Amino acid sequence: MSISVVKAQQVNVAKAFASAAKQTDVLIKNVDSARKIKSNLVSPRTVENGQFKMVTSKDWTSGFFPAELWYFYEYTRDKKWLALAQKYTEDIKAEQFNKGTHDLGFMIYCPFGNGYRLTGDPAYKAVIIQAAKSLSARFNAKAGVIKSWDHNGDKWKYPVIIDNMMNLELLFETTRLTGDSSFYKIAVTHANTTLKNHFRPDFSSYHVIDYDTLTGKVLQKVTAQGYANESAWARGQAWALYGYTMCYRETKNKAYLAQADGVASFILNNKITPADGIPYWDYNDPKIPETSRDASAAAITASALYELAKYSTSSKKYKAAADKIINSLSTKYTAKTGANYGFILMHSTGHRPAKSEIDVPINYADYYYLEALLRSKKIRVSG
Ligand code: GLY
């Protein structure tokens, strides 16, 4: 069943935000209780084997929780959410100096970028700029990409994952904030190299591309979190869609728009996804339909489609598909108030090959769900 639709039911943003806010009140209570026991655990990540799981600021998902609080503040303009967002954002600050990961876009830009956009606080601006410097230190000019991971050195030399497209937004913003074009140039070079090497002819994306930094050549095209090297891992497709949509916004390069349109067609025309629009965790898992969905991939996709609808000639189709996904998430994938340890959405898949986070709530699903709700409120489409 393809999820291309002409018109979907209008999203009830007010209702969805109101119930998400009640859940998040519960989540905050759980966070504060957990922190009394271990204060270095700053952010709620998931629930696994019935256990509420918190992470330190070093975890790649640490920024999503405070960033969600910024979205509640944006929607309500209630000072309660402002104070909460400010408080929990502070806990991630140390990561601006972290040169051991590519994930600084997620960790720093989601909370501090939203915080700066909504308050103009110069302290947040300084953190964003430092984080962009740290991230840029991972760029290799010969390969033309930012290195994603330092782990598993026996498996790959210089791995770059499709997810890394998301971190480029931090670099684009830093050029705007500083006037220093070097960040912009790194982002564009990374996006161009990824466009050349990460995609198959049907616009589906590989997960990991390994580079030789002496020659710049591709050494291998493999997966880490997907079903197989040649499969299409659902969240990877969502990162690709969001990443090239954002790169088009930042550069107006038509090649990025064409890429985003291509990835959207892979996602929306795929007959594997059920009628509710929430994909299985990997489009090629042979166990489908007896396998897990990934609500996080759906939320990221919906948010990206609302933005792509502003730029593409397929505006109406994209908005309708995003509405359909968000209607499904807000009716069938949300937890009852008080359940799910306060996480908003259920049924995401983090890392199935590692038997980790299968059919669970995950903080980034909630973050992109709230972002999609905010975007759905603003969007006007014509085409
Ligand atoms: N960026 C890691 C993931 O999507 O699971």
Automatic annotation (TrEMBL):
<feature type="binding site">
    <location>
        <position position="235"/>
    </location>
    <ligand>
        <name>substrate</name>
    </ligand>
</feature>
<dbReference type="GO" id="GO:0000272">
    <property type="term" value="P:polysaccharide catabolic process"/>
</dbReference>
<dbReference type="InterPro" id="IPR052369">
    <property type="entry name" value="UG_Glycosaminoglycan_Hydrolase"/>
</dbReference>
<dbReference type="InterPro" id="IPR010905">
    <property type="entry name" value="Glyco_hydro_88"/>
</dbReference>
<keyword id="KW-0378">Hydrolase</keyword>
<feature type="active site" description="Proton donor">
    <location>
        <position position="163"/>
    </location>
</feature>
<feature type="binding site">
    <location>
        <position position="223"/>
    </location>
    <ligand>
        <name>substrate</name>
    </ligand>
</feature>
<dbReference type="InterPro" id="IPR012341">
    <property type="entry name" value="6hp_glycosidase-like_sf"/>
</dbReference>
<dbReference type="InterPro" id="IPR008928">
    <property type="entry name" value="6-hairpin_glycosidase_sf"/>
</dbReference>
<feature type="binding site">
    <location>
        <position position="163"/>
    </location>
    <ligand>
        <name>substrate</name>
    </ligand>
</feature>
<feature type="binding site">
    <location>
        <position position="239"/>
    </location>
    <ligand>
        <name>substrate</name>
    </ligand>
</feature>
<dbReference type="Pfam" id="PF07470">
    <property type="entry name" value="Glyco_hydro_88"/>
</dbReference>
<feature type="binding site">
    <location>
        <position position="103"/>
    </location>
    <ligand>
        <name>substrate</name>
    </ligand>
</feature>
<protein>
    <submittedName>
        <fullName>Glycoside hydrolase family 88 protein</fullName>
    </submittedName>
</protein>
<feature type="active site" description="Nucleophile">
    <location>
        <position position="103"/>
    </location>
</feature>
<comment type="similarity">
    <text>Belongs to the glycosyl hydrolase 88 family.</text>
</comment>
<dbReference type="GO" id="GO:0052757">
    <property type="term" value="F:chondroitin hydrolase activity"/>
</dbReference>
